[in-house]
Amino acid sequence: MSNERTPRRGVLLIVASPSGAGKTSLCRRLMADHGGLELSVSMTTRDIRPGEVHGRDYNFVSHEEFQRLIDADAFLEWADVHGNRYGSPRGPVDRALAEGRDVLFDIDWQGARDVAEKCPEDAVRVFILPPSLEELRRRLVTRSQDAEDVIERRVANAKGEIEHCDMFDYVIVNEDFDRSYAELAHIYHAERSRRFRNLWVGNYQAALLREVV
Ligand SMILES: Nc1ncnc2c1ncn2[C@@H]1O[C@H](COP(=O)(O)OP(=O)(O)OP(=O)(O)O)[C@@H](O)[C@H]1O
Ligand SMILES: Nc1nc2c(ncn2[C@@H]2O[C@H](COP(=O)(O)O)[C@@H](O)[C@H]2O)c(=O)[nH]1
């Protein structure tokens, strides 16, 4: 974002949803439009999909390596999701917060709960709902990245995930993509503008008050 004033306190923007509701697509566009926003690249034990890039979409690791990282307390949060393990590495988030940078998380509701518990001042939780479960299934099928049984498991898990939507700060129904993206971008901009995140305001205000007119 241009005309950056510092120091600031960063936003931890967490976007969660049932699988297929569209959070990754929304997060990708938010990243593309906001150079200063850093994606928390998760670790996962799931198999890499065609088109995915190790280190960009995820860090793909073995179950043994994932367990070693849990034992080393290397995760800010981790969870079992749809039969695999996923976790947000702690180091990049700690560094971003220390430097007042914003971090975007594309994680499930358990991760949203845990990050908000650990960083209550910084976390902003957004839940993406699908227009219907039928449309959710259609999107997963059209995405053509998962086997039929994996898709059915994800659709079956959707209600259990939607049940947790009450704990989120914001909810977006992702029917029209552009409109949903505009809502997400507005949330991000508004959260960045909150007084307590803009630590530079005190000095700025004092300078204005010293002005003689
Ligand atoms: N508003 C929308 N209308 C129609 N299709 C959409 C919309 N938003 C996203 N999609 C499509 O739905 C599919 C699923 O989207 P996406 O991969 O972003 O979901 P996700 O919530 O991140 O899923 P997962 O949790 O499995 O990663 C993609 O093919 C995407 O292009
Ligand atoms: N709690 C966490 N959930 C995560 C993390 N990274 C991704 N996820 C969520 O897992 C499901 C499935 O993702 P997929 O890429 O296999 O389709 C989805 O809800 C992700 O948001 C994480 O680090 N922690």
Roughly what percent helix?
Answer: 40-55%
**How many beta-strand runs?**
9
Beta-strand residue percentage: 15-25%
What is the ordering of alpha helices and beta strands?
EHEEEHEEHEHEHHEHH
Largest sheet: number of strands, sense, barrel closure: 5 strands, parallel
C-alpha-based Rg, rounded:
19 Å
Distance between termini?
Answer: 32 Å
Sum up the overall morphology in one term: globular
Bound molecules: adenosine-5'-triphosphate, the ligand Nc1nc2c(ncn2[C@@H]2O[C@H](COP(=O)(O)O)[C@@H](O)[C@H]2O)c(=O)[nH]1
Low-confidence stretches: none
Tally of DSSP helical segments? 8
Strand order of the largest sheet: 2-7-1-8-9
Query: Which class best fits the helix and strand makeup?
Result: alpha/beta
User: If you average the pLDDT, what whole number results?
Assistant: 96
What does this 3D model show about the protein?
Helix content is 43%, strand content 19%. The protein has 8 helices and 9 strands. The protein has a 5-stranded parallel beta sheet with strand order 2-7-1-8-9, with helices on both faces. A 4-stranded mixed beta sheet has the order 4-3-6-5. Helix 5 (133-143) runs antiparallel to helix 6. The radius of gyration is 19 Å and the shape is globular. The relative contact order is 0.21. It binds adenosine-5'-triphosphate and ligand LQESDW3C. The site of the ligand Nc1nc2c(ncn2[C@@H]2O[C@H](COP(=O)(O)O)[C@@H](O)[C@H]2O)c(=O)[nH]1 has 15 residues, from strand 5, strand 6 and helix 4.
